[in-house]
Write a structure and sequence with these properties.
It is found in: Cytoplasm. It contains twelve helices and twelve strands. The protein folds into two domains: 85 residues, Ribosomal Protein S8, Chain: A, domain 1 (2-Layer Sandwich), CATH 3.30.1370; 211 residues, P-loop containing nucleotide triphosphate hydrolases (Rossmann fold, 3-Layer(aba) Sandwich), CATH 3.40.50.300. The longest helix is centred in the N-terminal third of the chain and has 19 residues. 42% of the residues lie in helices and 18% in strands. The radius of gyration is 22 Å and the shape is elongated. The N terminus is likely disordered. Strand 10, helix 10 and strand 11 form a beta-alpha-beta unit.
């Protein structure tokens, strides 16, 4: 791709023309009925024209520069086989506006592989927000990571993807996924079936993440062989989890005693990720009774333990989810 700048200084009107060398990629770049271009116009305040393989951008110098970087980023992602959707457009806008991510954006614009990625059997995952980029670095470099923030920020999904990648390469021998089986206000009563069938509804989000990273037959085979274990936190008591990648999801619903028990299961050549939203707990005593809040207070600053914090700005689900989180955080502040 090449570009021809026509003007400018910050605050003045500027026009830039981009030329794409693969016209067959433009339908994916523009989106159905040009919805990706419309989203850029609405979010960044630029005016976009498209003729053939040329795209014109007009607005202030800052707006045009951001729109140019986003289109370059999305185009590079398409060349790597990624699917561009509205969530990715929003994420790319957020990343382009983040100065600490200049290196990542620049690497992706040139068509090279991004420096931060997770490869699984089904897909290659790259960060969609600055916080995700930081989190993915910590998943590689630290043995214990607390991922803290609202739903939809990719905390559990990225942890599962990293765990699958390490299981595939053989750097760990087992993948252990756990959640506390706490009712969230719904009275589920007596559930039919054996123990697995009783607890599976609580663990469904973990299965969903696994199936997104591994073919279904591999997931089933690895669960049957014991390479992948999905169980409530109560099943961890009395064990030492060595040579394993261990993930605790919905950690805000653990008690301090459960959290201490879980953290002390840590074994040789293992990695442990604790995911949760400190501001949302289903425990009767509220946040004050949460083992996650207690652990982050006690362990903050301890060597070898990383704390990664997400906010509503990092939500990568439908954009309305981010606005909902912001509304609730504002009310609870």
């Amino acid at each position: 791709m090449s570009r021809k700048p026509v003007a400018a200084q910050a605050g003045e009107r500027s026009r830039v023309e981009l030329t794409f060398d693969r016209p067959q990629s433009l339908s994916a770049l523009f989106g159905q009925y040009d919805r990706n271009l419309v989203a850029l116009e609405n979010r960044l305040g630029v005016y976009i024209t498209a003729r053939g393989n040329r795209v014109g951008l007009e607005g202030t110098a800052e707006q045009v520069a951001l729109a140019r970087d986003v289109l370059n980023d999305l185009y590079a992602r398409i060349q790597r086989g990624e699917e561009v959707d509205s969530g990715l457009v929003d994420a790319s806008i957020a990343m382009a506006a983040e100065p600490t991510l200049d290196g990542i954006i620049s690497a992706e614009k040139t068509g090279g592989a991004p420096p931060i990625m997770i490869r699984t059997r089904k897909k290659t995952i790259v960060p969609r927000t600055p916080a995700q980029a930081h989190y993915m670095r910590e998943l590689v470099h630290n043995d214990m990571i607390f991922a803290l923030g609202p739903a939809g920020t990719g905390k559990t999904y990225l942890a599962v993807a990293q765990a699958v990648a390490q299981l595939i390469t053989g750097s760990v021998q087992r993948l252990i996924l756990s959640r506390p089986a706490v009712e969230a206000g719904e009275r589920l009563g007596f559930l039919p079936g054996d123990m697995k069938e009783k607890v599976d509804p609580y663990l469904r989000p973990l299965y969903d993440a696994l199936y997104d990273c591994l073919p279904a037959e591999q997931v089933e085979r690895r669960i049957a062989s014991g390479e992948i274990e999905i169980a409530p936190i109560a099943f961890m008591r009395g064990r030492t989890l060595a040579d394993a990648f261990v993930i605790l999801d919905e950690a805000q619903n653990t008690t301090p005693a459960q959290m201490k028990m879980f953290l002390t299961r840590f074994g040789q050549n293992s990695r442990m990720v604790i995911c949760g939203d400190p501001n949302q707990t289903d425990l009767p005593g509220g946040v004050a009774a949460s083992g996650l809040a207690d652990a982050t207070m006690r362990l903050n600053g301890v060597e070898g333990i990383a704390m990664v914090r997400f906010s509503a700005a990092d939500v990568v689900r439908h954009p309305i989810v981010g606005r909902i989180v912001e509304a609730y955080e504002g009310r609870d502040a």
